[in-house]
């Protein structure tokens, strides 16, 4: 199974060339092909010379008879263009990140071993993009509160930038939110191909964050993503004013999942130094801090996908946290949490005094 890690069809990454993923197989359902967005994505796929299959049914049934290893390998290298079910138009809140979450895709081509999708999505990790995008976007206004700035997170079930060169859907969202004064869009990514976003009319309504981590964590557990250096370089470009060739976006840094690795203070201090170097100018910057946690279900899926993982998934030495639905997750002990929280909040206050720390969890 470990051979699978990093086995995505990505263009070779270097510091200067963005990380781009290309599927080995592209599926279109009939209902997706019947939409203008589906047609646009189809044209992109033809132009990219990617292998397209037009299905005869809206059901995707390509994994029959395959073992788990092969299902994972095929799912992570296949892009399916589908229409989102109407049930997905009923939105769910997503505290503390945003008021609501909505989805333009589901699944991600990267191979982060701690990925939260392991616990939140079921079935094969097939990458699905939604062709009924106008319907998805037009649905959002009914969730906006009058006289308040309602926030919408688009990155809960996917990394939208990882797929942007194939779909253009994230750009469409940013343009749409640019016309919605009472709403703001929140995006988070571990990829770096931001050139399609730079000159979009976002109107200050979108905040783009990069998710980054200390070098040992990123090196060991984040196969298939852009390097942390490349993500920070992309963030700099997004934050720079448009008059200086940047995107003029509000930006953010998500440090997740924070892990108590050996010499964790040293490694996270180095990460803060990298952020300081990348953002050495005044900008609208937020931080979000998320410690490592897992559930029984996510542990089971992660061990199935990455049986040789070195992730700390030992329930012993963790605290059990209950959610309001009775579910449990394993988090660091209260004393450890306190110590880490103090370290991170002090680092941020000292190094980025005008930034905003949105939450620690
Ligand atoms: S980039 Fe994000 S969504 Fe994709 S595998 Fe990594 S953690 Fe999961």
TrEMBL record:
Keywords: Lyase, Plasmid
Keyword Plastid: no
A Pfam family per the record: SPL
InterPro entries: SPL
Example GO molecular function: DNA photolyase activity
An example Gene Ontology CC term for this record: endospore-forming forespore
Gene3D superfamilies, per the entry: 3.40.50.12110, 3.80.30.30
Domain of life (superkingdom): Bacteria
The protein's name in its UniProt record: Spore photoproduct lyase
Organism the protein comes from: Gloeothece verrucosa (strain PCC 7822)
């Amino acid at each position: 199974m470990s051979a699978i890690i990093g086995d995505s069809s990505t263009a070779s990454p270097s510091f200067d060339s963005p990380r781009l993923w290309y599927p080995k197989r592209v599926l279109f359902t009939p209902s997706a092909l019947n939409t203008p967005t589906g047609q646009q994505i189809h044209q992109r796929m033809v132009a990219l010379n990617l292998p397209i299959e037009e299905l005869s049914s809206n059901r995707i049934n390509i994994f029959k008879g395959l073992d788990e290893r092969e299902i994972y390998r095929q799912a992570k290298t296949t892009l399916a263009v589908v229409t989102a079910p109407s049930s997905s138009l009923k939105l769910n809140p997503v505290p503390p990140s945003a008021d609501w979450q909505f989805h333009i895709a589901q699944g991600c081509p990267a191979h982060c071993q701690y990925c939260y999708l392991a616990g939140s999505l079921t079935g094969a990790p097939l990458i699905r993009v939604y062709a009924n995008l106008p319907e998805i976007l037009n649905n959002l206004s009914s969730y906006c509160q009058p006289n308040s700035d309602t926030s919408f997170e688009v990155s809960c079930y996917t990394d939208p930038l990882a797929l942007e060169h194939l779909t253009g859907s994230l750009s469409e969202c940013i343009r749409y939110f640019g016309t919605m004064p009472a709403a703001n869009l929140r995006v988070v990514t571990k990829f770096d191909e931001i050139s399609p976003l730079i000159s979009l009319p976002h109107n200050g309504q979108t905040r783009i964050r990069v998710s980054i981590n200390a070098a040992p964590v990123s090196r060991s557990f984040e196969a298939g993503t852009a390097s942390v250096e490349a993500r920070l370089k992309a963030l700099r470009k997004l934050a720079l004013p448009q008059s200086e060739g940047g995107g003029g976006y509000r930006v953010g840094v998500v440090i997740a999942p924070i892990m108590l690795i050996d010499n964790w203070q040293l490694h996270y201090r180095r990460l803060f130094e990298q952020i300081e170097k990348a953002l050495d100018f005044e900008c609208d910057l937020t931080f979000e801090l998320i410690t490592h946690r897992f559930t029984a279900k996510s542990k089971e899926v992660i061990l199935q996908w990455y049986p040789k993982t070195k992730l700390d998934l030992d329930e012993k030495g963790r605290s059990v946290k209950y959610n309001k639905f009775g579910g449990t997750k394993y988090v660091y002990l209260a004393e450890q949490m306190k110590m880490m929280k103090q370290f991170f909040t002090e680092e941020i206050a000292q190094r980025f005094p005008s930034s905003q720390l949105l939450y620690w969890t």
